Amino acid sequence: MSAAISSTALEQAAEWLVRLQDGASHEDHAACERWRSSDPQHALAWDRAERLMHKLGTLPPELAKPVLGRPSRTTAQRRAAIARIVAGLLAVPAGWGAWRYAQNQPWSADLHTAVGEHRTVTLADGTSVTLNTASAVDVRFSATERLIVLRNGEILVRSGHTGDPRPLRVASAEGMLQPLGTLFNVRHYDCGSTDLAVLEGAVLVTPAQGQPQIVNAGSQTRFNTRHIAPLRATEPAMTAWTTGMLLADRMRLDQLVAELSRYRHGLVRVDPALATLRVSGAFPIADSERTLDMLVSTYPVDAVQRLRGYWVTLVPRG
């Protein structure tokens, strides 16, 4: 499995995988076998596809069905399935952990959103929680506390004003946040840090192994389990997602694409030659195709599309 496999062969294997899972005929199976035996790259790609099928067979139904569900798919669903399977095929050599990371499906959380989805929920105490794309939280209200656990992603929280004696807290992997009558934004990063931007009121930040600090309205910071970074003025870009926009002020192109990818199915990559290109503008997160068009029309880049648009690479304009 260490042999290199071409992206074309992986794409074709993904297409065959979807086709055969959708109630294929004997002729379809025979055609797949002819394809597999016609090229050593095809054989390698199909072997990897079979390994992926074995892994999917161990998944909870809530996670497996969206990828290889038996009901007949629409064209859009087939495209999405193929793109997700290609991501899985790329991840198989790294193991199940990489596949799970690539899918990032918070299927077991109390509240969650899909890629590109926003959702606002009012909790029993009147607290409002807005979840950004691909986010997940657990809500644990008891007789002594009101706890919101941010498992991944980003949320905007407006604390309820009910006179409830139980303290309201928001937990991330890096520490605890206690709002003091406030509106604030929290984003968790897989690298082991959490961003906080306070828009109204104040928030008491307590790192898991560090000293607490109050962050007042108009300030933002980043913290890990031990340290809280120096406070700085809240940047509009941090909460622009609540208005459907992605703001960039001389942002590196690879950083912009990483942000855009949070809201888009499929893969977007940047040629290393363009990684440090500085870009500015206001880009719509609900229409990633339009954002890519804006980049192509404004900067010296081209967008090369594969997998019917689910795999995009930004390259220098020739």
TrEMBL record:
InterPro entries: FecR, FecR_N, Ferrdict_sens_TM. Residues 110-203 form the FecR protein domain. Residues 11-52 form the FecR N-terminal domain. It comes from the Bacteria. GO terms for molecular function: sigma factor antagonist activity. Pfam families: DUF4880, FecR. This is DUF4880 domain-containing protein. It comes from Duganella guangzhouensis.
